[in-house]
Each structure stands twice: as structure tokens, then as C-alpha cells.
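User: Sorry, what's this?
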Amino acid sequence: MYFYPTITDSLMEEAGYTAAEYIFSYSLDGTEKKLISKGKSTIKLEDPFEAWKLDNDGVRLKRKISFEFPEELYGKNGVACTGAELGVCIIWINRALTQMGTILPTNEYTEDSIKHYEFNHYFSGGTIKGDLELRLQAYIKKASGNVSFDEEHLMNEEGVTVGTFDIARVDFGSIYMEFPIQEISNKAQPLWWLETSIWTDPRVDSFSEENVKIYLNTAYESCPKFGDTIKHEDVLIDIIATVYTMLFNRVDELKLLNDTIDDINLEPGSICKMLQHFVASRVVDLDFSSEERLHKSIWINVASMIKGEDNSDSE
């Protein structure tokens, strides 16, 4: 809770605030390669060249934001005193490694009265893992030396945040984010269920909500909920493990299990390619000798991926 005015949607509109999407990339053989961003509230990154590894290559992010009427942010109806100077920055948080930092603009300029800020930051390989939260914020860069009576309610201390424009979350590895998930609230329906389309060829059919979707029913207290942490994490693990088991069984029924495991003729972004990625990312070998053993081995891997723990001793 803030006890002074902060950034609001209406103020952003009045200031003519616009923001480009984050662009993520990495370097391959000296050439910058753009990663494909998927998702809105939480972003997954996909490399069309299938060469990118966060631990080795790191990741670069870029973004540009603009204010057509930056003067609207100042004065009694804004968030900063008339004589102050606002700054913008990205606060990044990497919960997997319990660290955070600040990204300042690499370029800041005014063109035709429009204020522009450009960000360009590189996280080297091994410095972050698992997740990344990006908070675009405004702060008092320079305090006003003279505060008028009608601006005394405004924050005027240097370095203090005066609001957040938006928050983006990047998921580098949490396996639940691989799945298209839709929340509903209906006590007449189960806690969760899986819906799939009639697949033409899962080696080609895209792994998207048109073909695979998990429904989570928030009408139940035990329904997994996502935020800074996962609520009812163990329930989520059971759900994801069961869904993987169902998908592997369906691929097996289509006589495509070996192709999936061995990555034979799999299109990037396809259902089988997603399953093959799970096989390649395993911490414990999957046991396909029976459905029961398959489910147990999948559960061990899913628990390890979501909790970030080594559960290999659970076999």
C-alpha cells in the first residue's frame, strides 16, 4: 500500500504511454538470434534453431517505451513534483536463485516532444535460471528543490518508486507452463480435466490450446493457484504427471512412441516434440514397461522440475 499517488491506468493513458513487447535473443556463431515469445502473463521462450541453452548462452532482453505527454506525470495530478525528474527502470527478480537487480535505460531521448526510453540488457550464461520477473517501474530520479503547497502530497525523495507500469514473467523451466491452462469456476465440474482434439499427426500438430488444454476448477479450495509461489503445489504435480501419462499413452496407441522418444521427424512446437523435450529434460529415466510405472517415473520428474529438487532417490 502506498500513502502517496502512484502510476494508474488512467494516468498512463493521459501521459500517452506506449510500450513495445520485450524482445529476447541470444548469440549463435556471432549472430544475434531472436527467441520466440509465447504466452501473455507468463512468457515461454522458444528457439526456432533449437540451439539456445540458457545456462550456456544467457539471454538478452530489449524493450522500448514512450510517453507522448510526459508532462502529465508531473504536478498535483501526477506522481512527481513539477521541479522533480522521473526515471524509469526494470526491476528483475530471479526467485530460483533468490536474487534481484535493476536495469536502467541504455538510451533516453526526446523526439518531437515524445519521451523515449530504450532498454538493452544481457544476462550471461549461468547467472539466472528457472524464472525471471520483470517489473517496469517509475521512480523519483531527482527530487524537486521547491515543493508547492498543492504538491505536498506527492513523493519527493530520490530513489523511491512511484508505481509500476507492467509486470512480465518469463518461465525458463517450470514444466506446468508448457501446458495451455484455462481456469474455470464451477462446482458441478471436476477439479481438473484434460481436453484434446482429434489429432491428425501429433508429430506435426501444434502443442497449443486448439489441440491440448488443461482446465483447472478454481471453485475448489484445493485447486492449484499461481502467483509468486504455487499454491497446492503437490496437487499440481499430480495433475501434470497424470496429463503427461495420458499423452504418452495416446501417442503409444498411434504407434508413434519410438519416434517421439528418438526425435524422429518431429516438427518444432508439435505435441510429440513437447513430449520429446520432456524425455530429454528428465532427471530419472522414464519406465515405459507399464502404465503404472510410467506414471510413477513421470511424477518423479515433474516433482523435480516444479520444485527444483533432485527426486532421483524416490525411485
Notes: The chain has a mean pLDDT of 90. The radius of gyration is 23 Å.
